[in-house]
Amino acid sequence: MAITPSPFRAAATACIGFVVLAGLCAAGLLVRYDVRHAAGDIEVPQLRVLADTDATQAIGAEIADTVAGTDTRVLLAALKAKAPVGALDHAVVRRGENGETLFIPVNSMADAFGVCAALSDVPPHCAPVVASDIELQTAGGAPVTAATLLRNGIAPYSPTTSRAKVAWANFGSLKG
User: Fold this and answer.
1) pTM for this one?
2) Angle at the Cα of 151 from the Cα atoms of 76 and 81, rounded to 5 degrees
3) What's the CA gap between 60 and 93, in Å, rounded?
4) Is 59 in contact with 105 (CB distance < 8 Å)?
5) pLDDT-flagged residues of the chain (< 50)
6) Using CA of residue 117, residue 77, residue 124, residue 126, what is the dihedral sign?
7) Of 174, 142, 129, 166, nearest to 27 (Cα)?
8) What pLDDT is recorded for position 21?
9) How far is CA 51 from CA 56, 122, 132, 154, 175, in A?
10) pLDDT of residue 54
């Protein structure tokens, strides 16, 4: 009597074979990447770290969907009339690559979401952002500094790494 493998054993062997083949392919791709990276064929983009700059960071709510050419002071007056939010008293102008926007600095991301929630019924779109003091200025054109923020009761934002998670690891060149 001949022993024939059961269908379960055949399926399990096929699955294990597929996993081994996929592992070998992944290892081959990692070795190829390391060789090309060492030869200079691949350039790895560098991450920009905000903590390494001299600029002061501020958390706030940004109103960016404004009509081109709209004066931010007029927009601010209209917002104060429609939604009396106390944080609007500290609003400044953010000048970025997309032009001028209204920036309302606050102390936490939760406060920024709160400001946006309070302004949700008002047409311009609001979004929480982190901005650099290099981009910020008062409505009169004066630069916004850490001292300006502190005078308004806003603590400058300093990113921490204590809550950061590992997003990438180089498994191809482990050295003991």
Assistant:
1) 0.56
2) 20
3) 12
4) yes
5) 47-48, 50-52, 164, 166-176
6) negative
7) 174
8) 95
9) 9, 34, 11, 18, 29
10) 66
- Look at residue 110 in the predicted model and tell me its pLDDT: 87
Place of tokens 């998670």: 165
What pLDDT is attached to residue 78? 74
Task: Sort strands 57-63 and 136-137 into parallel, antiparallel or unpaired.
Answer: unpaired
The closest alpha carbon to 92, from 123, 114, 116, 60, belongs to: 60
DSSP 115-168: HHHHTTTSSS-EEEEEEETTTEE-TTSPBP-HHHHHHTT-PPB---STT-----
Q: Beta-carbon neighbour count of residue 119 at 10 Å?
A: 21
